[in-house]
Each structure stands twice: as C-alpha cells, then as structure tokens.
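Q: Can someone sanity-check these two? First one:
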Amino acid sequence: MVALVNTKNANNRSATRTLAVFGLLILACAPLLADEKGVTEEPLFYPQPPNEAKLQFLASFSSVLDVSSKNKGFRDFVFGGKEHEGALVSKPYGVAVHNGAIFVIDARGNGWGVFDVANGRSRMVRPSGRGSLQKPINISIDSDGTRFVTDTERNQVLVYDANDRFLRAFGEKEQFKPVDVLIMDDRLFITDIMHHKIHVLDKGTGETLLTFGEPGSEPGQLFHPTNISSSPDGTVYVADTTNFRIQEFSGEGEFIRTFGGAGAGPGTFSRPKGIALDRENHIYVVDAAFENVQILHSDGGALMFFGKPGNERDSINMPTVVKIDYDSVEHFRKYAAPSFDIEYLVLVASQFGQNKVTVFGFGSLRE
C-alpha cells in the first residue's frame, strides 16, 4: 500500500494555515461517471495533487430510492427536493456493514434502516415488545449476523438475530449507559458514559468479565468515552470525547498510551467520536465539531483528513461514526471510477444534511 501523506513536519506552521492546506479536496483527472440519464459527474478523489489519490467518494445513502436509483431528478420530482422527505432514517448515529448491506441506527426513529446494496432494496426495522428500542445509538454485527444495539434510554445492549428477531438484553439497572459496543471474539466491550469506564461482557451470557477506566483526565482515566474500536492484534482504542483524545488499551484493559488533545491542528480534536482502524493500523477518527475525519498513523501522528460540511454529494454534517469494511467491497465497485482499485470501504454517518451515510473507497488509481 502506498504511504499516506505525512504532515508531522508541519508543526511549525500556524494551525489555520496548516488546516487550510491539509484539508484541500480535489477533483482528480479520471473518467467521468454516468448516472442513469447519462449525465456525467467528475469522480471525487482525495487528497490534493501532487500526492496520490487515496480515497474516492463512492455514494451517499439517505432516501429509500438510493439503493435502486441514483437519478436525482426523479427523487426531486417525487420528494420535492426536500432534504428530509423520503429519508429512510431521520437522525442517524451508528452504522454497520454486513453482506453488502448498510445498517443505520435511527436515534429518533427507534430502530434501524437497512440499505441493502447487494440486493437493491431498503427496509426499516422497528422492533416491538420486549425488544423495542427507546433511544438506540450504535449497532455492531457479528459474523453470523447477530445484531448488538446500544440504547441509552433503556441503558441496555439489546441483541437480535440475523432475521431481526429479539433474543435478549444485557444490562441491569444503573449498570451502565452504553454508547458503543465492540465485538471481539467471545467478548463485548461497551463504552459507559455514565460511569466513564469500559465494561467487558461475555458475548453469550452478558456476564461481566472485567471493567477498566475511571472518571478523570489522567492517562488511563476517561471522561465520556463514546466510541470504541480495535486493531487486528486486539488492541482497544477508545474515543475519550470530553478529554479530546484517543486512548489505547490492551484487550485486558491495561493502559498503553494516549494521543491527541484539544486543538485545531492535525492530530488534535474538538469533539472526537467515531473511531475505526484498517489492517495497517491507520486510525480514522470522526470529529463532530470540525465535521471531518482524520487519518492518523499508528503512533498517533496525523496523516491526512477528508470531509467537509455542506450540501455537496460528498458532504458530512455533524458526523458521528466512521466504519471500515473489507468484506463488502465487491458490492460497491459499481460506484468507483474504472481506474480506481478499492481496498476497503470507509463509511461515515451524519446527523444532519442531505447525506445520512456517505461511503468512500480507500485504494489507488491505476496508471
């Protein structure tokens, strides 16, 4: 894999100048992409030349028609061009990908939407009865299709099978206020913003195996941990949101290091939330205040960032989470420029704006 753009030597520049240069996005020279009416659009690549393109905007998903029709004129005719009309999900937060389908939590709609790109259809799931949701936030999906959904009103993690049928709920009264859940082998790692710690449960029984973290701002302490992810070797990364940093722990909860901090320059944060790692241990961090995604080296040094607020086809507005997926790439190749080879997908959820979920491909342009 070609190295990403390294900005560590830019520390002597002012934060404003650094961000202005660092964040430029481009329209790279590449074949035009045609929609269903034959209208062509330039593919969007990042970062700016002379650096090699690493990411391509592929598609955004909001409307029930987005998996079956990319004809914007038809959508505007049906829905009058209104931002929220026809949206499958009203207020997205968590995102997961499984078997070519994007699952998007609707924090306002008490369920999750499914953009099934592989099969060209969409649906909305709103569980009822004992499995009903009150304020769902995040979703993680196991290899067998089991869904784990955090609910900050019920203060539980709810479990559903691959057919969306409710199985069980984890969490006793006052045990935690869960925001995110990480599946790692036979364990669940749950961020708790009420007690400022991480709970590790048995995936099958919900039994607490260990907890780590405590309120505070010292290394290893947490203040409003929101999102959580892991590297291929099992290292755990936590978005320590109100401490403006990322913290790294072993799979047994032992503190390793911290990086980031409050600031406006590369490698610093204002409101870090979603976090994801690729197989090379590059760290993707969503910043809900800057409304972008930073890519960091495994040592925490800034490499590049992408994304900007607005009403463009690649815009992200108040983003919440970022997810990386290798398994569903084939289902999204149709959105890529013919000369761009996708290695993995990068998905970003936005709470506002016309794009509920924006999908990028990480890869390289062929000569």
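And here is the second, same format, sequence then tokens:
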Amino acid sequence: MPDFVGAVDQGTTSSRFMIFDHDGGEVARYQLEHHQLLPRAGWVEHDPVEIWERTNSVMQNALRAGGLSPSDLAAIGITNQRETTVIWDPRDGRPYYNAIVWQDTRTDTIASALERDGHGETIRRKAGLPPATYFSGGKIKWILENVDGVREAAEAGHALFGNTDAWVLWNLTGGPSGGIHATDVTNASRTMLMNLETLDWDDELLDIFGIPRAMLPVINPSSHPEAYGQARTSRPLRTATPITGVLGDQQAATVGQVCFAPGEAKNTYGTGNFLLLNTGSELVRSTSGLLTTVAYQFGDSPAVYALEGSMAVTGSAVQWLRDQMKVIDDAPGSERLALTVEDNGGIYFVPAFSGLFAPYWRSDARGAIVGLTRYNTNGHLARATLEAICYQSRDVVEAMERDAGIHLDVLRVDGGVTDNELCMQIQADVLGVPVSRPVIAETTALGAAYAAGLATGFWRDTDELRSHWSESRRWEPQWSEERRAEGYAGWKKAVERTLNWVPVD
C-alpha cells in the first residue's frame, strides 16, 4: 500500500492540499487564497471556477513540494466550507451564479417567511436546524427565484446543486465527462433539506423550499471505499487515485481531534468559530439555540451526531482589523497590539457583521463597539477583538452544557487562530477551564485524511487514530471568578446593543 494520504481542504478564504504519513504527520502542503466578493452590504460570494482552478493547482504543487507522485497516495479526502452554495450546468460545468457563501445574509427575508408561514418547527424537527441565512436551502431558493433561467434549467435536469465539496468532487472526477455528483451526510445535514433520522433528502422539506430533487447530490457516508470515485482530471492525478472520504470542515476537525466518544468536544478557530460536542448515536435536540447535526458516518456503521454552536465572525474580525481598518499589518499583529494593554479598557466589540449565529440566531443584529472613551487606544480594540472570539465561544459552551447536561473539563482547540497564544489564554480565562491545542493544529485536513484512510485500511480503526493525538500546549485559567463574571456580564450587555439594528420582514 502507498505510504501517504492526501486531503483537499477547500475553505472560506483559501484552498489547500495537505499530505500526511501513517503517523498523521504532515509531509507537504500548498495553499492559495481566493477572492472574497462583496457586491452589496451583507452579500458574500466566491467564484466557483476560481475555487476549482486553485484547488487543482494546490494539489499539483503540494505533490511537487513533497517530491511525491500520485502513486504515493493511498487515497484522497475532501473537506470544505459548509453551506456555501454552488449551482452549475452539468453539460459544460459552468456555474449559473457565483457561490453564495455561508456568511451571506441576503436570504433573511426567506428565513423570516419560513418562520412566519409556520415551517420553522418542521425544519427544526426534521433537519435539526433553525430557518436561518446560514444554511444552503435558502441560498438555493434565492438562486432559483432570482437568476434568470435557473428554475427552468433545474426542472429540465440541467442544474446541479452542491456545497463546495460536491463542486470540487464533480470536477475532480471528470466534470462534464462523467463527474460524480455526490456529497456526504455531514454536508447534507447543513442544507435544511436532509432528514436527520433517514439521512436522505426529505420530500416535505424540498416542497417547503420549492427545490427539485433532481438537483441534489447522492448522500453517502463520510468514509467509504467506493462512494466517491477516483481523481482523474488534475494533471498529476491521472493515475486515478481513489477519493474515499468527504466531511464538512467542522466535522472533519472533530475527526481530526479524535472526538469519537460522546461528551468529547472541540472548538475550531478560523474565519468563524465552530464548537462541536459528540452525542453519539443519540439525536439531542437543542432548546438553547444550538444545531443538531451529523458528526460523521464511517462505512456502514450508524451515523454519529453532534450538537454544534456556530459563530459567524471570529478570525474574520481580525481580518477586518487588517484589511478594512488598517489597524494591523498581518494577523499576528493583533496579538502584538493587544499585548500593549493590560485589559480591554472597558470596551467590547461584538462583530455581528452577518447577524448573530448560535445561540442567538438574530439576523437583525449588526456589529458594534461599545464603551468607548478617549482613554481607549487601538491596543484596546485589538484586545476587545480577541476577547470577542472567546466570549462568543463561552456563549456556546454555556448553551451546550444546558442542552447536554455536561460540564467541559477541557476544551480541545484547533485552527489558525490558536497560533495566537494571548487569545488562547483569554479563552481559558473566560471559560474557566483549560484549553488544549494538539501538535497538529490544522485538524480539518487531517480529519479528511483520516476518513479517507479508514475507508482503504490505511488506518485500522479509530483507536489507532487516537494513538496519534498529542498535546503541544495547554493554557490554564488565570482570572479570578469575580473578573470572569464581570467580563462576561459586560459582554452580554454589549450583545444587547447589537439587536434590532436591521429591520427583517
């Protein structure tokens, strides 16, 4: 058997290809950013063709960087930004419209109408999700209703939908020349269209959204030796390397963090934050503003479920400081600047650029910086930005503890923001529990590789994967209980100031 497994990680801001060895160690990677298209306030789009071209490029360059050939790869896994919606013509592979990104809020009137018309409870019960701008169903409906010709094309069988996993998979397996139109249960569970109990598209939900079933990909397990075909269009992969794993990015990070037992949780710090708690084979329905979702399904085994708290703007708030405000020159500059002050100077920054996600689900909210005085400096703003990442995570942890009846003893963390050691210390202080970062912090790609490798026997079982996990750094809480309570009370007051800012029908 070949010595390595590859993983496509198609994310919100970039695409990359990573190659891992049998111990889960990184062998090579290559990464390219793609453009963020912001045509109107609240609208966020990507060019699907650019995403595919750069995905193809990073695969070639990672193999070249590692001095490897396609025959060195036992399998390939795919992980992706979830909910980001692409609709394309299978006859020529041309998208009918730009990809509508998960952060986009143009479907707020669609989500509100679903609630107003009494469909909200049905969607929550069957799909485990609230009607919200976040998920794919509303984005599909918007394109069908607002882009000329797409409705007619869909009804004639000339339009395919996919989140970016399905788009990349279809192109990678041949595109117009026989590309496979498929997704996995984790991505399907983010659409508001899949029934969590049957793990299939639900006719009642499709009827609510007015979406033809023929547009939708086949739903497969997250790890399977035959479900996803073989990579054959990317030039260095003409040896037809099998694609045997597909996972949405946050579920992939859960697998990469080896959270295979009920009660184990991880928090990924990227463009947004995503905290998942494994609930095993039990469907735990949230009463506290969380999502019920599929964590993974390996082969013919039953699906494993999770509670999830999704926070839309965390790491991207740091990008906002860099790109729009010009307060810092690069992402590490947020830590350097925040270290120039001892605390937030009394200010709070709630980055509700796309409304508030879990546990609030308020599309009428918008970002706010509150508590400003002439005393405050850009150091205080940088510190408040890092604290915003951590306070949003505390909101979700508290909701998770209410729903699942557990108390976290430690929080496993991963993602690019975990390189910011001040932010991780603040997270431990805000939560009052230790924060643990693994040796391999980029667990999203690793989880996709694990799913692919399990399907081919490259790795024997999840116990073997557990043996690869090791801690690189742990942060212990340092704040007093009084300071922790006072800081969180200030955060809750700041959140209140963001509400009812944008009228929603």
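A (reply): Looked at the second one. The first helix runs from residue 48 to 65. The CA atoms of residues 430 and 484 lie 6 Å apart.
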